[in-house]
Design a protein that fits this description.
Number of helices: 8
Largest sheet: 5 strands, parallel
CATH superfamily of the domain at 21-138 and 169-194: P-loop containing nucleotide triphosphate hydrolases
Shape: globular
CATH class of the domain at 21-138 and 169-194: Alpha Beta
Distance between the termini: 40 Å
CATH architecture of the domain at 21-138 and 169-194: 3-Layer(aba) Sandwich
Order of helices and strands: HEHEHHEHEHHEH
CATH topology of the domain at 21-138 and 169-194: Rossmann fold
Structural class: alpha/beta
Number of strands: 5
Helix content: 25-40%
Length: 208
């Protein structure tokens, strides 16, 4: 993937810190990583993300959840839901996630992120070795049944434009690291599946 960025002014120079990522990870007892949960609205991304964080926290890990609604209260409060704004939303989240990785933190991202290109761009920025893409697969009808906000109903009534799954497409991941059927998999089992994946790849210390 080719990613172009505008050149920086000559007076902007990256400062080399003495406290490195490796030293932070040594102190934390695990590697920094991004666990990116993607799926339709109502597929259970936030529920799974926070349950995963709870388990990792109890294991002594340094964690943080970046959730779609939460970041739009601050970091992305100025963005709407146009195609361009969605791209910028994911770009900002990717940059923040990359900072968390440098801090040796496990950051859990729970975002629809409907477009393959945006998720691939995030993976490229963060590094595939630091990135786990998890597809929270859930039938649209189940997501609509779970819709406590009534967003799907409004979208079908034409009250919400560009709503993913109704009037705007969701592009399924091409090669996700994990696929979890959130309509059928019990939450504790889903959490353990994610933890096991990261133990096997030495992001986390082996469970005892």
């Amino acid at each position: 993937m080719t990613i172009s960025t505008p050149p920086l002014p000559a007076n902007i120079v990256r400062h080399a810190a003495t406290v490195t990522r490796a030293r932070r990870e040594l102190q934390n007892g695990h590697r920094g990583a991004v666990i990116w949960l993607t799926g339709l609205s109502g597929s259970g991304k936030s529920t799974l993300g926070h349950a995963l964080e709870e388990s990792l926290h109890q294991m002594g890990c340094r964690t943080f959840v970046l959730d779609g609604d939460n970041v739009r209260h601050g970091l992305c409060a100025d963005l709407g839901f146009s195609a361009q704004d969605r791209i910028e939303n994911i770009r900002r989240i990717s940059e923040v996630s990359n900072l968390f990785v440098e801090a040796g933190v496990i950051v859990i991202c729970a975002f629809i992120a409907p477009f393959v290109e945006d998720r691939e761009r995030a993976k490229h920025l963060i590094g595939s070795e630091n990135f786990c893409e998890i597809y929270c697969r859930c039938p649209l009808e189940v997501c609509e049944q779970r819709d406590v906000k009534g967003l799907y109903k409004k979208a079908r009534q034409g009250l919400i434009a560009e709503f993913t799954g109704i009037s705007s497409p969701y592009q399924e991941p091409l090669h996700p690291d994990l696929v979890i059927d959130t309509s059928a998999t019990p939450l504790p089992d889903a959490v353990q599946e994610i933890i096991k994946w990261h133990v096997q790849r030495s992001v986390l210390a082996p469970l005892t």
